[in-house]
């Protein structure tokens, strides 16, 4: 049981290096935004009455729309921007995101950011430099394994606080002025927004406007004020006493203006977004829903101390939803590691006539061999419950539609495409979009957040997209007699064979 998490942790640690910040020369650029200064509320006064007792819901299926929406909301922020993420990478997307946050902070917006420690791919000097801005504060969640820790300290923490180093913050929320929210599966890194040259994720977020945003804001505040969230300046110090943090600020702005890093067409689309948003608000694309519920685990997840189990609010809510299903359940999860409990839950649903279809990654598309190893061992047992399983192809036809932008035509590569969306639709009445993977880490250790959208219109649209991704051109249907593991190549198959000794579930 512990060996599984220990090996997973070592894999994470091996990916968490702290390379020196190298600031290459950049061409001069115009740092002014050609975007109107009218606020979101000022631009769309019709929102005021709707936002009181309803939530505007718009599902973000494409990476391009997801990054543009974040950028545009950042430009429109009047007072506050509150952000929490599991992964924050110092790459194109991460640098561009920091550029927008610095611009907002320059005009007086208060910015707060919480990042989990374990997958923090950012040089400490870079974080501290941004934190030096008087209107920006960074905190690190549970900083016991990566930031400021040498190998000896990491191994000591693994040995003396094994449960503690496994309790991670997997929440992903982006809150503007306490009224506008983006939440879902995406982290802040190139591969979540179709920018990576080798591997991209098919992901899903949701834009929430109005009533439910208050619940997300309260959840963020709980994490921000919790003792596990530590100011970055209390965790690490600058590598040199006289570090020039303003040089980092200038580099970020110059980098984001370089068309090699951020296509100017993207900035043009952001500038044109007032018209785009008007189209959304004046059409049926934005659905005003009375019953939208945001559920988040509490910081620290649960009070269990002796084992790695314990559950949480999100786990309980999803179990209750599956138990209440009457007709159908469609699920997308990048990782599918089940236990006796979850398999029995699915079997009970199938036995009462519920059709269950799950899309997960194939060996050919997965980015996580440890998780696939757990799925590999449990796959037949899950199929025996009557659940239908589909495995994503590394080059699905639907990729063309999801990438969708003419900008992608400029690229002369075909990166692997993998499922990363964590979503569920039940009985054409309820949609769940969030951060919860179908595996023991999400069930028992990581804090997760999910949004329940009880809307037939939203559920029908998301379900149609899910069904399309189950088609033969996008996924293989796995049965007791067939699986597509051979498509992953002999190297991956050998690695899975080696990992078969690792236990995959929590009893």
Please provide a written account of the structure.
This protein is α+β, with helices and mostly antiparallel strands and 507 residues long. The chain has two domains: 2-20 and 47-281, Endonuclease, Chain A; 292-499, 2-Layer Sandwich (Endonuclease, Chain A), CATH 3.30.870.10. The chain is 39% helix and 20% strand. The chain is built from 20 helices and 19 strands. It has helices at 2-14, 40-43, 47-53, 63-76, 92-106, 124-131, 151-160, 162-166, 213-225, 232-235, 245-257, 264-271, 273-281, 313-324, 340-351, 369-383, 398-403, 440-445, 456-469, 490-499, and strands at 55-60, 80-89, 110-121, 136-141, 173-176, 180-184, 199-202, 205-210, 229-231, 287-289, 292-296, 328-332, 355-361, 388-392, 416-419, 423-426, 430-434, 449-453, 475-478. Strand 16 (423-426) and strand 17 (430-434) form a beta hairpin. The longest helix has 15 residues, at 92-106. It starts with a helix and ends in an 8-residue tail after the last helix. The model is unreliable at 1-38 and 503-507 (pLDDT under 50).
List keywords for this structure.
about 500 residues; Endonuclease, Chain A; eight-stranded mixed beta sheet; about 40% helix; about 20% strand; nine-stranded mixed beta sheet; alpha+beta
């Amino acid at each position: 049981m512990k060996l599984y998490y220990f090996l997973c942790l070592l894999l994470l640690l091996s990916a968490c290096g702290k390379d020196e910040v190298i600031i290459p020369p950049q061409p001069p650029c115009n740092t002014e935004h050609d975007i109107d200064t009218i606020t979101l509320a000022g631009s769309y006064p019709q929102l005021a009455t709707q936002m009181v007792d309803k939530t505007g819901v718009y599902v973000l299926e494409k990476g391009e729309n997801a990054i543009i929406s974040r950028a545009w909301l950042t430009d429109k922020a009047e007072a506050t921007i509150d952000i929490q993420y599991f992964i924050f990478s110092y790459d194109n997307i991460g640098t561009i995101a920091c550029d927008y946050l610095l611009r907002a902070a320059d005009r007086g917006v208060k910015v707060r950011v919480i990042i989990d420690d374990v997958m923090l791919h950012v040089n400490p000097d870079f974080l501290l430099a941004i934190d030096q801005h008087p209107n920006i504060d960074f905190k690190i969640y549970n900083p016991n394994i990566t930031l400021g820790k040498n190998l000896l300290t990491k191994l000591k923490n693994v040995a003396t606080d094994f449960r503690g180093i496994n309790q991670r913050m997997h929440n992903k929320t982006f809150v503007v002025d306490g009224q506008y929210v983006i939440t879902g599966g995406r982290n802040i890194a190139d591969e979540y927004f179709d920018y990576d040259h080798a591997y991209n994720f098919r992901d899903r977020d949701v834009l929430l406007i109005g009533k439910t945003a208050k619940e997300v804001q309260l959840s963020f505040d709980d994490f921000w004020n919790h003792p596990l969230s530590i100011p970055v300046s209390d965790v690490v110090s600058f590598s040199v006493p006289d570090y020039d943090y303003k040089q980092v600020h200038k580099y970020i702005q110059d980098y984001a203006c370089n068309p090699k890093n951020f296509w100017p067409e993207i900035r043009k689309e952001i500038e044109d977004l007032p018209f785009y948003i008007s189209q959304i608000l004046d059409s049926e694309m934005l659905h005003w829903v009375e019953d939208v519920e945001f559920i988040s685990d509490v910081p620290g997840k649960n009070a269990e101390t002796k084992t790695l189990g314990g559950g949480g609010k999100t786990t309980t809510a999803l179990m209750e939803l599956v138990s209440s299903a009457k007709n159908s359940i469609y699920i997308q999860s990048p990782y599918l590691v089940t236990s006796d409990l979850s398999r029995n839950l699915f079997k009970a649903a199938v036995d009462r006539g519920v059709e269950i279809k799950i899309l997960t990654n194939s060996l050919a598309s997965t980015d996580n061999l440890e998780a696939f190893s757990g799925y590999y061992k449990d796959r037949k047992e899950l199929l025996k419950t009557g659940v239908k399983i589909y495995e994503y192809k590394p080059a699905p036809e639907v990729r063309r539609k999801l990438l969708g932008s003419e900008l992608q035509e400029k690229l002369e590569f075909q990166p692997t495409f993998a499922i990363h969306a964590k979503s569920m639709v039940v009985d054409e009445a309820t949609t769940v979009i969030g951060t919860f993977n179908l595996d023991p880490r999400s069930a028992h250790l990581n804090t997760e957040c999910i949004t329940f959208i009880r809307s037939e219109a939203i559920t029908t649209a998301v379900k149609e997209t899910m069904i399309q991704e189950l088609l033969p051109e996008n996924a293989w249907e796995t049965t007791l007699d067939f699986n597509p593991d051979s498509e992953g190549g002999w190297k991956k198959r050998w690695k899975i064979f080696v990992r078969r000794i690792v236990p995959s579930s929590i009893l």
